[in-house]
Amino acid sequence: MLIHLNGEPLRLDAPCTLAALLAQTGLAGRRVAIEVNGRIVPRGEHAGHALAEGDRIEVVHALGGG
Amino acid sequence: MTTPAPHDARREPAPTDDRLVIAGTAYRSRLLTGTGKFKDLDETRRATEAAGAEIVTVAIRRTNIGQNADEPNLLDVLPPDRYTILPNTAGCYTADDAVRTCRLARELLDGHRLVKLEVLGDPRTLYPHMPETLKAAEVLVAEGFEVMVYCSDDPILAKRLEEIGCVAVMPLAAPIGSGLGIQNKWSLLEIVENAKVPILVDAGVGTASDAAVAMELGCDGVLMNTAIAGARDPVRMAQAMRKAVEAGREAFLAGRIPRRRHASASSPTDGLFF
Q: pTM of the entire structure?
């Protein structure tokens, strides 16, 4: 299954939830917000949200800015 | 009967109860600081503390995938339980991108409603794109956000943003990062005098006297980033800015003397013996 994570293509071998993807990419437990195909998936729904072929996922966080 | 103790000039003045109220929350500090352009997170923290800032802006950006999980995070250094985090929409050139950024910020910060809206017009001037700013402000206010809005120093547009329901209006003093200081005192004064919400100067401050002038004009606060982060000694400049904002505020509240063309002697002119 091919998805796009923060603009980069990523191939996943097996069906995967959003929470599993975060764990796989070292982002589990970090303060992030996530959009899948332009819609926000609230933190409480990451574990139950199954990813689908072609999903475009944006993972954002806060950093220094004025 | 006791005689009151003589005033001790060495004592610090009694703290006043002068507070900056934004969206119903009272703040002691009228200096808001950005967190960009610092050398590292430790400098960010030290400068923020030296500024005495209670409200700090942050940007919302993509995470680096595969980053070290132990890497310190901005919000570990400036924890949301100690600071009011003000996510910005810096880098947005359309109302849609700005609204999208605010929604993500709300999710990121657990339902947080206070945001700094900025929609830019072009990369050369970083001037606010006012038609898109007005459009985004309307959507965000309707969605329950508390919007502090970066805008041009146009009194009519500033009033319009207040009417839309923004909780603070933040005209620029000069272009972002330019350090040119206040370029149009008279339009700032016009905005301040007509406002029912706090007016903060956002962008363009170069040094402490610029911040003091903004406060002396009656602005409710100043938001700055580059003037501190870009100084040779950012922590010391942060402290200078804190003092300047406090001094400017005190001077505004005290009421300055009118300007006059000719001298007025400070010592009595009676009782001269020569």
A: 0.92
